[in-house]
Amino acid sequence: MSGIGIGRALEGEVTTGSYKYVHRCLGRSVGVGIAIIWGAGPDLLLPPKLCQEAAERLILTLPLDPPDITHHRLTDQVYASDASFIPPSLSTSLPTIDTSKPPSSLTLSVVGPSSGLVTSLSSPRYQAAMSHAEVAGCLSAVLYAEHHAGGTIYSDYLPVVNWLSSATPAPSAFHRWLRDIYARRQRDTAVVHVKAHTDSLSLPARLNRAADHAASHCHSLYCPPPSFPTPTFFLAPYCIYAPGCGFIEGNFMRYIQKRLTDTFNASHPAWSHLTSPHLYDPTPPPLFPYCTSPYAYAAVVQLYARSAQLDSGHLLASRLDAGHSPWCRFGCDALETPHHLFTACFHFDGLRSSATADLLLSLDAVLDASIPSATRRALVDLSAHLFSDSNAWPMGQTRFYMGFVPPLAHLSLPSAMHTHIVHLWHTASIHLAGRIWAKTRQRAFELLRASKPAPSTYSIPEILRSLFHLLSGELSFTLSDAHRSFPDSCVRPRPTDRDPDPTL
């Protein structure tokens, strides 16, 4: 073989070997990538349009065999959607198991002509919130109406109704999916807002009550509702995924904060009822309510509440041998913990409602025209839930009676406005906590006084009273005789008037 032939043969071997090496490395890289993506779901390997079509077909097939709670015979093409959420329980001791409902559940429902839809949005692939479930229910109703001669969809979630008629960017994959379905509609389909939890007999109000009933009662079904498809086809180009938690959209710092809180509670179950101040707004509280004597009582309440030393019925029953009941002294079927007294006891519902109304009036006077409407709605929502458990609080439970307020950094308020609102919240919290605990101590004093034995009604017999009368007569007679037997020199003279001055 000539030199040229030998050279070409060697070049061919090198080229073939290089191709094999590159193919082997590329195969390994693709295999590793598939293994990573497979944990988030194999549908990520498919085209987004194909996944969307499959998800919509799945939603349309789910209502074929609905539970009995969604069957309604309606003459008009009307629909209603709603969502329901059971937050995870925060146990301060050993975990308890309630077989009647899952520890955490997020469901949605659609009620329409002669059929309905009930699904679950609790999934390890996506960190869904209550707002996502409301949007998912609305898009399911729109999709179902588009395939059945159109109609009107009633939703009690006002933000999604306003968002559909605006040009605001979609905050989540569910919103992008809803906007895409709503833009593709070809029939007379509209989304209308309806007030929730009313006693009206109108058709929209009755539909809303039916949807709310379906969503809230499917948490404890014997056969759990099917899972709602995850809209991975409308995720952002770059989205955070955490194994065991799923895709995370929105405020990632709030998610980190929540995970740190859950980790702390899981590793310190005996102290999970205590609260870290770093989870809440760091703005210093106002000095006037704490340094003035009329409100100093509330500062003492906060001190004992933060150290888990507030003498509630549950604490006294756990530390003392007998004589104290752990149940709520106002008749609630619950343990009397500080959190129950300040946030859940029905006896103080009037105080909490009055305090919330006064706070909203004060907030409306503080907010000026420079605050954006979205920020204003967020502040109103936070103020309305300041004295109740909600997702606005880092741990899902209010801590107003400890002197904490929810964080406000994500609203990007001006510094002066931020401080003003925090001081407004602190003052309202101090007033409410002081009034609730004062009435609690008053009730404890009334129960203690009622438990004391009544004074004895025993009377001295008549014969003993006669004997005491005779003895007292003889004693007075003896004393008078003894006085007469004393000489005059031993008797002290009675005081007389002052002698006149002889010189006058």
Strand pairing plus helix content: what structural class? alpha/beta
Query: What does the overall shape look like?
Result: elongated
Strand residues, percent:
5-15%
Can you count the helices? Answer: 15
- In angstroms, what is the radius of gyration? 38 Å
Low-confidence stretches: 1-16, 90-102, 482-486, 489-504
Biggest sheet details: 5 strands, mixed
Q: Briefly note the CATH topology name of the largest domain.
A: Nucleotidyltransferase, domain 5
Number of E-state strands:
7
Helix amount, in percent? 40-55%
Going by CATH, the homologous superfamily of the largest domain would be: Ribonuclease H-like superfamily/Ribonuclease H
Strand order of the largest sheet: 3-2-1-4-5
Distance separating the two termini: 172 Å
Overall mean pLDDT score? Answer: 76
Level-2 CATH architecture of the largest domain? 2-Layer Sandwich
Task: Determine the oligomeric state from the structure.
Answer: single chain
Q: How many domains in all?
A: 2
Order of helices and strands: HHEEEHEHHEHEEHHHHHHHHH
Your description of this structure?
The protein has 504 residues and is α/β, with parallel strands linked by helices. The protein has two domains: 49-89 and 100-248, Nucleotidyltransferase, domain 5; 275-450, no CATH class. It has 15 helices and seven strands. The protein has helices at 3-40, 48-61, 130-146, 158-164, 173-183, 203-217, 252-267, 288-291, 296-306, 313-319, 338-343, 349-366, 373-384, 415-451, 462-485, and strands at residues 78-86, 105-112, 115-120, 151-155, 189-193, 240-242, 246-248. The strands form two sheets. The protein has a five-stranded mixed sheet, sandwiched between helices. A two-stranded antiparallel sheet has the order 6-7. Helix 12 packs antiparallel against helix 13 and helix 12 runs antiparallel to helix 14 (415-451). The protein is elongated, with a radius of gyration of 38 Å. Mean pLDDT is 76; it is low at 1-16, 90-102, 482-486 and 489-504.
